[in-house]
Each structure stands twice: as structure tokens, then as C-alpha cells.
Specification:
Largest interface: A-B, 46 and 67 residues
Strand order of the largest sheet of chain B: 1-2-4-3
Shape of chain A: elongated
Radius of gyration of chain B: 25 Å
Distance between the termini of chain B: 24 Å
Number of strands of chain A: 4
Number of strands of chain B: 4
Strand order of the largest sheet of chain A: 1-3-2
Order of helices and strands of chain A: HEHHEEHEH
Number of helices of chain B: 12
Largest sheet of chain B: 4 strands, mixed
Order of helices and strands of chain B: HHHHHEEEEHHHHHHH
Shape of chain B: elongated
Largest sheet of chain A: 3 strands, antiparallel
Oligomer: heterodimer
Helix content of chain B: over 70%
Radius of gyration of chain A: 22 Å
Chain lengths: 125, 325
């Protein structure tokens, strides 16, 4: 299960790097440059990714050509957005280092820190 | 008949007066681990008292015995005599229903909560595995491209710490190390399980303020506990600075999103810029004793009559296994 997840990640990284629709065969040849892997494995992984809605595909001749639905940047933004959206909720499934807070609260934090911190830490971003 | 009333009264006192006393205490912030323990003991004490009150109503004299056959026959006798008294059957059924309903509700909410959060975490982890940019230096954190600073951990079997590129940019080397130590403390200490427990009771009985107070206190105290663990290897001021830097670089929240007491972060920065000030040994011992007393009392209320009766040899129930006709 874990291994398949890793492989999905590798295949997605490749597809994001191509910038055009590709067939399973091309991904396979690319992957074979640094590992031994079967055609059916790559096909299964890409089919899974298609089922999960990460790839679109189009039949060209007798083979499917796959392409990512979102760019890498869009995908990351969506994942993080979803993760952080509910993170202030006390029922959240993740433990966040700092909760999101309004600007005046940030100012109060800065004030408390400045009251004790030596000058060298007084840098503001 | 005294046991169910005593237990119910005890549950009410703990849920009102006990909750009020603990909620206004300042000491849990000083020793967060004991604070969490106190809230857990308080919650569990209420729960156990109510369940035992129901059981005591169903079986008025729970005849304690190490002999299972004797215990069963004694229970049968006790139940029979209960059903023989007018209104006894109705009381028994009500008590039994109460105990079973409460336990079933807690069990259901616990399992449902664990399953939901596990599914969410797995889905997120899968998405992150695809999205991440790489691992941060020597550590175990996933770095994800994102314009808002954030650092968090996903607990569970496949635990994972996640930081955004904006967070890495906002922190210097020591500050990042402090943040990672804090998140690692959450994972090592299984703080997610503490939160799952308090969240279960809060969801099971949303009207009971003691349970929602306990959950909110636990949310706050696990953060302070993780700060304290991180402070063993990191400078307290570095942790405080990291907290403020991340708050600055994080996406701002709307003004209404904070509770009346201000943010937990403010309390954390205040205690981090001051030297550590944990409870004294005596104070800690008192806290542990009170927590133990909260848990022992409901059990003692139920067990006391049986223990006394056995000791005095006045028990009307025959423990030899013979059933009086």
C-alpha cells in the first residue's frame, strides 16, 4: 500500500514535468532509466491516478494519453488549503504549531515577545 | 436506594462545582501534564458515576464476590427481590437503560471519531505525498510549497510532520528546530489520543459543559505540554520567537475567530518568555491525589455497602450458591 503510494508520487512528478499528454509507454521508458518496472505496474498506477481524479485521459489511436488535471502548484495549493482550512477547529485532525489569528492578536504576541526578548531578536519580517 | 442518589449527586457536583473550580484554576498552565490528567479524571469521574448510578438502580445491591457462580446467583436473588417490590421493575429497567445508553453512546462516538479522523489523515497524507517538494534537511518533515506559513503534524501510525515553504523562510535554523521538536513531542506523546478522548465525550454529550470545557482545556494544554518538551533541548525564547514569526507569516484569521479568553498562542508566548515555573512537588502530589479521589469515589460508593455487609456478616444473600425459595 505504502509502496504504491510512493510510486504514484513518482509517476505524478514525471507527469508534471512533461507538460503534455503522454502514453503509459513513455512514462515506462522514462522510469526504466533508473529502476526495473513492469508495464502493467505503471498502467495500474496511472489508472488509479485517473480514478482518483488526478489525471485526465484521452484515447489516441489505440492507447490512452494521460495528463494531470491540475498543475503541481495548483495541486499543492489545494491540498494545503484543505488541510489548513479546518485547522482552527478544535475537532481538527491535525496538531498545528500556531493557530490562525487576527492581525491585532499577532501584534499582542509581538508585544509580549518584545518585552522580554533581547534586541537581536527584534527583527521584523 | 442511597447509592444511585449519592452517585447522581456526586456526578452533578463534579460536573458543576468541580468543573468551575478547575476551569478557574491557573495551575494547569504551569504543569500541563497534570492539568490534562485533572480534566481527564474529572470527565471520567462524571461518566463512571452516571453509569454506576444506572447499574445501582438496576441491581440495588451489587453483591461483590470473587466466585462467579455465587455472584450470578446472588445477582439473580437481588433482581428477583427488586422485581417483587412495587415500582421496582420500572426502576431497574430505567437504571439499566441509562447505563447501557450512556456506554453505547460513548462507544459509538469514540469509534466514529477515530474512524473519521483516520480516514481524513490518510487522505491528506496521500495527497501530501504527491504534492510535497522534499524533506527538510536532516529532519523528517515534509516541505510543501505554500504562501502561508504553517507547521503541523498528522498523528497516527504513519505520523508525519508538515511545514510550508513560507514557514521555512520565516524561521532561522534554531527556530525551525524548536518547531519540529514541538511537533515531535505531539507525536511521541500521542497527544492525539488525549484529544480523541476528550473530543469523544464532548460530541457524545454536547450539553454537558464540563466535557466541552475539558476538551478545550486539553487542546490548550497539549500545546503547552509540547512547548515544555521542546524546551528541554531548545531555548524557551527561541520557541516563543518561532511562534510569533509563524503567526506573522501565517494567513490572518477573521477577528471573530477567537474565543473570549484570547488565543492559546498568547498564553504560550507569555509562559515561554518567563522562566519555567512548574508546580511544586507538594502541589503535584495534591493534584494527583485529588484526581485519584475523583475516580475512586464513585466506585467506593457502590462497593461500600457490599464490603461492609460482607465484613459484618449481615448479608442477607447466601453466598454458598443455594437459592432461597
Amino acid at each position: 500500500m505504502r509502496q504504491l503510494g510512493q510510486l504514484e508520487a513518482v509517476v505524478m512528478q514525471r507527469l508534471w514535468s512533461y507538460d503534455r499528454p503522454v502514453a503509459v509507454r513513455e512514462v515506462l521508458e522514462d522510469l526504466r532509466q533508473n529502476r526495473t518496472i513492469a508495464y502493467t505496474t505503471v498502467m495500474t498506477v496511472m489508472d488509479n491516478l485517473h480514478r482518483k481524479g488526478l489525471l485526465t485521459r484521452e484515447l489516441v489511436g489505440r492507447a490512452y494519453r494521460y495528463e494531470p488535471v491540475q498543475t503541481h502548484e495548483e495541486h499543492q495549493a489545494a491540498v494545503m488549503g484543505e488541510a489548513l482550512a479546518g485547522s482552527n477547529d478544535p475537532a481538527s485532525t491535525l496538531l498545528r504549531f500556531v493557530e490562525q489569528m487576527p492581525p491585532d492578536e499577532v501584534a499582542r504576541l509581538r508585544q509580549v515577545l518584545a518585552s522580554r526578548a533581547p534586541k537581536r531578536k527584534g527583527r521584523r519580517r | 436506594m442511597t447509592a444511585p442518589i449519592t452517585l447522581a449527586a456526586f456526578a452533578v457536583v463534579v460536573a458543576t462545582l468541580g468543573r468551575w473550580l478547575l476551569a478557574r484554576s491557573a495551575w494547569p498552565d504551569r504543569s500541563p501534564r497534570l492539568g490534562i490528567l485533572a480534566w481527564q479524571a474529572l470527565s471520567l469521574s462524571i461518566l463512571v458515576s452516571v453509569v454506576l448510578a444506572g447499574l445501582a438502580l438496576a441491581v440495588p445491591e451489587i453483591p461483590f464476590s470473587t466466585n462467579v457462580a455465587a455472584l450470578l446467583s446472588a445477582c439473580t436473588v437481588a433482581l428477583r427481590s427488586q422485581y417483587a417490590t412495587p415500582g421496582g421493575a420500572a426502576l431497574s429497567v430505567t437504571g439499566g437503560m441509562l447505563a447501557v445508553t450512556v456506554m453505547a453512546r460513548v462507544g459509538y462516538c469514540l469509534v466514529a471519531g477515530l474512524v473519521t479522523s483516520r480516514r481524513q489523515r490518510r487522505r491528506q497524507l496521500e495527497a501530501l505525498t504527491l504534492a510535497h517538494r522534499g524533506h527538510e534537511g536532516s529532519c523528517d518533515a515534509l516541505v510543501v510549497d505554500h504562501p502561508a506559513a504553517a507547521a503541523y503534524c498528522l498523528p497516527g501510525r504513519r505520523e508525519q510532520i508538515v511545514v510550508t515553504t513560507a514557514a521555512v523562510a520565516a524561521l532561522d535554523h534554531d527556530q525551525l528546530a524548536a518547531v519540529l521538536a514541538h511537533e515531535r513531542a505531539h507525536l511521541r506523546g500521542r497527544h492525539d489520543l488525549m484529544l480523541a478522548a476528550s473530543d469523544t465525550l464532548r460530541r457524545a454529550f454536547p450539553r454537558v459543559q464540563a466535557f466541552s470545557d475539558a476538551h478545550h482545556a486539553t487542546v490548550r494544554l497539549v500545546e503547552m505540554l509540547a512547548d515544555d518538551v521542546a524546551a528541554r533541548r531548545n531555548d524557551r525564547l527561541t520557541i516563543a520567537t518561532a511562534l510569533v514569526r509563524l503567526a506573522e507569516a501565517s494567513a490572518p484569521a477573521p477577528a471573530a475567530s477567537l474565543g473570549a479568553g484570547g488565543s492559546t498562542s498568547l498564553a504560550r508566548v507569555r509562559r515561554l518568555v518567563a522562566p519555567a515555573h512548574p508546580l511544586s512537588v507538594t502541589g503535584s502530589a495534591i493534584a494527583v491525589l485529588v484526581a485519584a479521589a475523583l475516580l475512586a469515589t464513585p466506585v467506593a460508593v457502590v462497593a461500600a455497602p457490599a464490603v461492609l455487609a460482607t465484613a459484618a456478616d449481615l448479608c442477607p444473600i447466601s453466598f454458598s450458591g443455594q437459592m432461597p425459595s
